[in-house]
Amino acid sequence: MSSPHAFPQIDHGLLRFLTCGSVDDGKSTLIGRLLYDTKAILADTLSAIETSSQRRGLSEMDLSLLTDGLQAEREQGITIDVAYRYFSTGTRKYIIADAPGHEQYTRNMVTAASTANLAIILVDARKGMLTQTRRHSYLAHLVGIPHLVVAVNKMDLVDHDQGVFERIRDDYLYFAARLGIGEVRFIPISALHGDNIVARGARLDWYRGPTLLEMLETAPAAHTEVAENFRFPVQYVCRPRDSANPGLHDYRGFMGRLESGEIAVGDAVQALPSGRISRVKEIQIGGLGIPSAIHEQSVALLLEDEIDISRGDLLVKPDEAPEAVKTIDACVCWLSETPLSTARTYLLRHTTRKVKAKVGRIHHRLDVNRLEREPAEQLQMNDIAHLSLKLAQPIFPDAYADNRATGAFILIDESTNDTVGAGMIATVESV
Amino acid sequence: MNRLNTRTLTHLDWLEADAIHILREVVGQCANPALLFSGGKDSVCLLRLAEKAFRPGPLPFPLLHIDTGHNYPEVIDFRDRRAAELDARLVVRSVEDSMARGSVVLKHPSESRNKHQSVTLLEAIEEFGFDACIGGARRDEEKSRAKERIMSFRDAFGGWDPKNQRPELWSLYNARVHQGENIRAFPISDWTELDVWQYIQREGLALPPIYFAHPRPVVRTKGLLRPVTPLTPALADDQVEEIRVRFRTVGDITCTAPVESEADSIDAILAETAVTTLSERGATRMDDQTSESSMEERKRAGYF
């Protein structure tokens, strides 16, 4: 048995990634392979899948049963919803968002992509680029996933031919350039045999690049690469007013998470919408002080001056303050079975702030298969469109391309309380 | 402006910060939440996260335990002690009271009360008007949980509709409910069993003693170790052995099995967890093995 010291001291944090493709592309096999080769599938889970496969009369073990968790999915043999899977290499923890591939599940793919920092796009080596490949790539790009990996799978079925791989790569690069997709990496794999996933394998020896796992191990996690302004939406104000502890009588902790940037004791901060400026007196986690905090840390900020701040307010640095806006242009993915109505008022949640919103104008809808714009009067579930929204009160956003956390919003239907739209702010016009 | 961050969070720091963010969203969005605290390891982590999220203020919610009446006394003692140490309000509602009221009817006296916790939980939600219950469920525990939202909507009957869940994007959680409906919030959704043990080790968290190796009479049944207790006595042809075991998960005595282990410290448990070949629920839960959808069916009926 290994000792706990077997855990390396180096911790490369956590990477969230998305896998796109359909069962036919070997996506489930790829996930199964990653989990199996990193020993994240345990023996009893594997034997349950085996039993389940046999009961369904399948000759081979169906690794998709690993990710299809709901009864309806198993009955219908389809993936309906995003499933999350976990594995760890000892140096890094991974969260896989496994999204269904079909067009009618665009909303699930957008959901899965919203928190991912890398996407693996699977292409069947025999089929090359398909409509689906273009749709998945486009959505991954739209939702701002910074790292795309195109994995050309089933290389075993094309005799491990380097020419096939290179043709698909060139096709993809031509397409990516048209969409403005920047960094893309390519890798030939065989998920079935495990070539270039965790182990290299001998059959693709003409490929000199990193294995898929090596790409994952070295991909920057979100918080290491983005250079952004300090943005701190206030979630909750802690005022203990503890009569037994007079020291806490004046305590006011503004609790929230650094959605971007960093902050140190002594830094000047500005509260929005009030515009009042103060300095950070203390930064605390669990009531204990720390000298500074970075992107993605959840802390409490104590300020030197007593200013009125509540949930929904935003703390920024005075020279980096975003503009107040009451009209936004955004790209919206419609998530609800009830179509978007331009007559209705929705509730828009942006960071911790909520405001009433109405659609001003639908500029155009995007055809995610042909990647063309088309006119639209209304939006159905899974539609993606550029539109403008009018807000009852101002928000303080960044453009989504600059900051995913402060450039995103959701729309809520107040009659059902359902989340009906997901938006990414394109441009910011001041009031 | 636009400096490049050079410092990064470790995976435990990230998971902790994420869970704190979720806890604060629940409290920011919901009027009357409760935190489900059983004394088990996952809820022990939740409680520490709640301290980190809200100290030096008081915990902005009561602790709620649904007691089947079939818990190990060591765990109940621990539960009460922790709640007292934290000066938290502890609400306990028991399945036995639901049975006395007639809202829980067992098929036979020895039927496991585990799934009937849902009824008592829904009664407690109604009694106190809770609009959110924070729980320590994890997506890696079970396949239907892998599909669950972090803020999971329950209708007025406490029911979960897995095919019609609210989309959940970025960290923009939607915990809005109408009167009578509620949210189940799962701040450690993305944690694995190993993460939980690593966090317990890092934070030096206390646990009920039955998590550590101890001698216990058991019967080997269908690959599981059935503990021999007054509630689960040995049957006539059972072969009772006393071996050293620990619990990987702590729940109702009638459906939770220990595993054979010599691990008597958190370090030793971590080492075992890192190399185990059996999943947490697979090795320990008798109630998940009845069918492929046992958990999904319980969750649809209001289970957490």
From TrEMBL, chain A:
<dbReference type="GO" id="GO:0004781">
    <property type="term" value="F:sulfate adenylyltransferase (ATP) activity"/>
</dbReference>
<dbReference type="InterPro" id="IPR044139">
    <property type="entry name" value="CysN_NoDQ_III"/>
</dbReference>
<dbReference type="InterPro" id="IPR000795">
    <property type="entry name" value="T_Tr_GTP-bd_dom"/>
</dbReference>
<keyword id="KW-0808">Transferase</keyword>
<feature type="domain" description="Tr-type G">
    <location>
        <begin position="12"/>
        <end position="224"/>
    </location>
</feature>
<dbReference type="InterPro" id="IPR027417">
    <property type="entry name" value="P-loop_NTPase"/>
</dbReference>
<dbReference type="Pfam" id="PF22594">
    <property type="entry name" value="GTP-eEF1A_C"/>
</dbReference>
<dbReference type="GO" id="GO:0005525">
    <property type="term" value="F:GTP binding"/>
</dbReference>
<protein>
    <recommendedName>
        <fullName>sulfate adenylyltransferase</fullName>
        <ecNumber>2.7.7.4</ecNumber>
    </recommendedName>
</protein>
<keyword id="KW-0067">ATP-binding</keyword>
<dbReference type="InterPro" id="IPR050100">
    <property type="entry name" value="TRAFAC_GTPase_members"/>
</dbReference>
<dbReference type="InterPro" id="IPR041757">
    <property type="entry name" value="CysN_GTP-bd"/>
</dbReference>
<dbReference type="InterPro" id="IPR054696">
    <property type="entry name" value="GTP-eEF1A_C"/>
</dbReference>
<dbReference type="InterPro" id="IPR009001">
    <property type="entry name" value="Transl_elong_EF1A/Init_IF2_C"/>
</dbReference>
<keyword id="KW-0547">Nucleotide-binding</keyword>
<dbReference type="GO" id="GO:0005524">
    <property type="term" value="F:ATP binding"/>
</dbReference>
<dbReference type="GO" id="GO:0003924">
    <property type="term" value="F:GTPase activity"/>
</dbReference>
<dbReference type="InterPro" id="IPR044138">
    <property type="entry name" value="CysN_II"/>
</dbReference>
<dbReference type="GO" id="GO:0006790">
    <property type="term" value="P:sulfur compound metabolic process"/>
</dbReference>
<keyword id="KW-0548">Nucleotidyltransferase</keyword>
<dbReference type="InterPro" id="IPR031157">
    <property type="entry name" value="G_TR_CS"/>
</dbReference>
<dbReference type="Pfam" id="PF00009">
    <property type="entry name" value="GTP_EFTU"/>
</dbReference>
TrEMBL record, chain B:
<dbReference type="GO" id="GO:0005524">
    <property type="term" value="F:ATP binding"/>
</dbReference>
<feature type="compositionally biased region" description="Basic and acidic residues">
    <location>
        <begin position="295"/>
        <end position="304"/>
    </location>
</feature>
<dbReference type="InterPro" id="IPR050128">
    <property type="entry name" value="Sulfate_adenylyltrnsfr_sub2"/>
</dbReference>
<dbReference type="GO" id="GO:0000103">
    <property type="term" value="P:sulfate assimilation"/>
</dbReference>
<feature type="region of interest" description="Disordered">
    <location>
        <begin position="280"/>
        <end position="304"/>
    </location>
</feature>
<feature type="domain" description="Phosphoadenosine phosphosulphate reductase">
    <location>
        <begin position="33"/>
        <end position="258"/>
    </location>
</feature>
<keyword id="KW-0067">ATP-binding</keyword>
<dbReference type="GO" id="GO:0004781">
    <property type="term" value="F:sulfate adenylyltransferase (ATP) activity"/>
</dbReference>
<dbReference type="InterPro" id="IPR014729">
    <property type="entry name" value="Rossmann-like_a/b/a_fold"/>
</dbReference>
<dbReference type="InterPro" id="IPR002500">
    <property type="entry name" value="PAPS_reduct_dom"/>
</dbReference>
<keyword id="KW-0547">Nucleotide-binding</keyword>
<comment type="similarity">
    <text>Belongs to the PAPS reductase family. CysD subfamily.</text>
</comment>
<keyword id="KW-0808">Transferase</keyword>
<dbReference type="InterPro" id="IPR011784">
    <property type="entry name" value="SO4_adenylTrfase_ssu"/>
</dbReference>
<keyword id="KW-0548">Nucleotidyltransferase</keyword>
<protein>
    <recommendedName>
        <fullName>Sulfate adenylyltransferase subunit 2</fullName>
        <ecNumber>2.7.7.4</ecNumber>
    </recommendedName>
</protein>
<dbReference type="Pfam" id="PF01507">
    <property type="entry name" value="PAPS_reduct"/>
</dbReference>
